[in-house]
Write a structure and sequence with these properties.
Order of helices and strands of chain B: EHEEHE
Shape of chain A: globular
CATH class of chain A: Alpha Beta
Helix content of chain A: 25-40%
Number of strands of chain A: 8
CATH architecture of chain B: 2-Layer Sandwich
Number of helices of chain A: 9
Helix content of chain B: 10-25%
CATH architecture of chain A: 3-Layer(aba) Sandwich
Number of domains of chain A: 1
Number of domains of chain B: 1
Structural class of chain B: alpha+beta
Oligomer: heterodimer
Strand order of the largest sheet of chain B: 1-4
Distance between the termini of chain A: 35 Å
Strand order of the largest sheet of chain A: 3-2-4-5-7-6-8
CATH topology of chain B: Alpha-Beta Plaits
CATH topology of chain A: Rossmann fold
Chain lengths: ~250, ~70
């Protein structure tokens, strides 16, 4: 019997607290699969955010540190300077990265910190109960915009990958999605490229991962994946925004 | 075509049905009777002979319930 897919050893043998159908479990697994396949599990240090994934350190089988809300890139920058050979990554949601941590992420990108950031964009605040996030789409309902986000009051959703890609030292920026098995395979390749960029010391690597939040969107998990395809991907187009020659 | 074998850890399944939605052969379905310790009807293999070992189900599963093997 030949294994085709076995759950990675990079994840601890512990069930997650995430809701049914939440994409965090897939994102966690992909990062750990990449580290295991690269043989860098023991060299990796992660920084977990505030949000649903605040307990990521309980599930990822690497050294991790918890950061104040939004400050994960600043903490990761410090770790990288003390441990230059470690693979340092931050794992952040949209409330953490795009809202309260908007400052830190831009300055980390501007300084070209040699770290990776994995940005989980599910267009809503998950842990606090479904409030509007900076990435909430126009017309999307949330508890703080029950009639749907409207342009006049709240403006347009932030395209963080595009914003970060404006920084010259953010050398690798890509947006991927976790809505279909094909896109999940591509997401894994993007995560691998981000770690390769860091290993080669080329600069800052940023991967935006479009995810589903079935509970707060009020959709069944399979419908939530369709919602990502139908509504999120047209506004947040997938693909590489910048990529150095060395990892293409 | 190679025949696949699916092994499930039903005790941690949250019955999100994402695996059911992506299976091209209708191999998986929720168990209509049994409950797991989390009080969900866990996923179960309803058409084992149809599996082609594409592993789509395992790739989209957020909870690591599914492992896929191929017959030698």
């Amino acid at each position: 019997m030949k294994p085709v897919f076995e759950y990675t050893q990079g994840m601890r043998d512990k069930e997650t607290h995430y809701c049914p159908g939440c994409s965090h479990g897939v994102a966690h697994r992909l990062i750990m699969e990449v580290l295991v396949e690269r043989g860098e599990l023991g060299k990796a240090i992660g920084v977990s955010p505030v949000g649903c994934s605040i307990t990521a350190h309980q599930y990822l089988n690497v050294d991790m540190i918890e950061s104040p809300h939004g400050r994960a890139p600043a903490v990761a920058a410090g770790i990288k300077r003390v441990h230059p050979k470690a693979q340092v990554f931050t794992y952040q949601g949209d409330g953490d990265l795009a809202s309260i941590g908007g400052n830190e992420i831009l300055h980390s990108a501007e300084r070209g910190e040699k770290i990776c950031t994995f940005f989980i964009n599910n267009a809503i605040y998950g842990m606090t109960g479904g409030q509007m996030a900076p990435t909430t789409l126009i017309g999307q309902k949330a508890t703080t915009c029950p009639y749907g986000r409207d342009l006049d009051n709240y403006g347009l959703p932030m395209k963080m990958a595009e914003i970060v890609s404006c920084m010259d030292l953010a050398v690798y920026v890509e947006r991927v999605a976790l809505n279909t098995p094909a896109n999940i395979r591509k997401a894994k390749q993007a995560i691998n490229r981000a770690f390769e960029v860091q290993k080669l010391g080329l600069g800052y690597a940023f991967v935006e991962i479009l995810s589903a939040c079935p509970t707060n969107w009020g959709l069944q998990p399979a419908k939530a994946m369709e919602w990502v395809t139908r509504n999120m991907i047209p506004y947040f187009p997938l693909g590489q925004l910048c990529c150095p020659e060395e990892v293409k | 075509m190679a025949k696949g074998i699916i092994k499930l850890r039903q005790d941690i399944c949250k019955a999100c049905e994402l695996c059911v939605s992506v299976c091209p052969k209708g191999v998986l379905g929720l168990d209509p009777v049994a409950f797991n310790k989390k009080s969900y009807h866990p996923v179960t293999v309803i058409n084992p002979d149809e599996c082609i070992a594409c592993a789509n189900c395992a790739i989209i599963c957020p909870d690591g319930v599914i492992n896929v093997y191929k017959e030698d």
